[in-house]
Amino acid sequence: MKENVVVIGAGIAGIQASLDLADMGFSVHLIEKTPSIGGHMAQLDKTFPTNDCSMCILSPKMIMCAEHENITLHTYSEVDSIAGDFPRFKVGIREKARYIDLNRCTGCGDCVAKCPSKVPSEFEEGLSIRKAIYLPFPQAVPRKMTIDAENCRKIKDNKCGVCLKVCQAGAVDYDQKGRIVELDAAVIVIATGFDLMDATALPQFGYGICKDVVSSMQFERILSASGPTGGHLVRPSDDKEPVNLAFVQCVGSRDAKNHLYCSSVCCMYATKESILATEHAPDVKITIFYMDMRAVGKGFQEFVQRAKKSHGVRYVRSRPAKVQQANGDNGVLVSYETPGMTGEPVSEEYDMLILCPALLPSSSTREIAKMLDMELDDDGFFRTPDIRYPTDSSKKGILICGFSGAPMDIPDSVSQASGVAARTAELLSGGDR
What we know:
The structure is a single chain. The protein is of the alpha/beta class. About 25% of the residues lie in helices and about 25% in strands. The protein folds into three domains: about 5-95 and about 180-195 and about 360-430, 3-Layer(bba) Sandwich (FAD/NAD(P)-binding domain); about 110-165, no CATH class; about 195-360, FAD/NAD(P)-binding domain (3-Layer(bba) Sandwich), CATH 3.50.50. Strands 5-2-1-13-24 form a five-stranded parallel beta sheet. Strands 15-22-16-17-18 form a five-stranded parallel beta sheet. The chain has a three-stranded antiparallel beta sheet with strand order 6-7-12.
């Protein structure tokens, strides 16, 4: 009999852990709260320091998850309850109603074309719209539609129903109900990922105030060929190509008033995005405001040097004090000081500003910790008390990987996910510390 393992979170860490566990012969139940697996990596255009296509790496793994005989996907689902102890956990999964019959939906998109309801797209970070019936992104797994009940006119007000009329497969079901699925699990893997800090909480950086201030994830989508601008580098205020732009790092991180820790990946993804920006617009001038350059991985320092020497990226050691609207409706004015500077702060005008906000433990991390009465560290990540077993949590049989345990990049998340699979096999074979 195969042992059941429940993996919570289907970003790259959860996907890799699931694949490795399934290949070992475990029966894996992969739970993802959004309609598709993939996590934040699906939003990225490229990965540092090689600038390889993110989706080219991720998409095959997503498909392998969907097709693996030992993996069961529970998308658009959340953990409702967890009880018991190692190796006999009871996990309740709340599968939310999609209002779509997954066995019938072909993902053709006819319903999307006709749907009249438009809302900001979460995947595109609000830079474009989606319909009330939607596929999160073209490579979504499963490739099945979901109806957003909060914005569907038929479900809310009984006034539409066009998607039912145009669906030739008969997949639309407005009466569908959610359900609770009960699972037994020998081990639980937590891979709940991260959330981006809402930069509107720091008004001095102009986010939500100045039109041409965007988050780093929004900029990632602008640079992506599959994004809202088709990969054309344009600023939001007038859709014109910026002549000069700037990045501000550590927005809310390494900050005594917000989050003390380093988010780990910002130095490198800002460098990556600056290189990509110059490839999209060769004449653009780029400045990166940073506190300390933390290029600690293999090839990272060389990547930074490449940005400086081959792409003309200017690095300024400073955390800007104030960002405000430039004269007129376009661009921003950035005021900053550098170490050792005397006199008044320098003010420079930029066509566009990209903020690198703190990366936070996801809301699911806090919810699951409360559900299990598990320890979090001072920064809100799951505590891993024994340095000899870096994937072990404070509760035996519940393992941690990826950003749920600490800030880390994609390669480290993947490595730790594979470590979780090995640790699971060790625990269930009787090996214990």
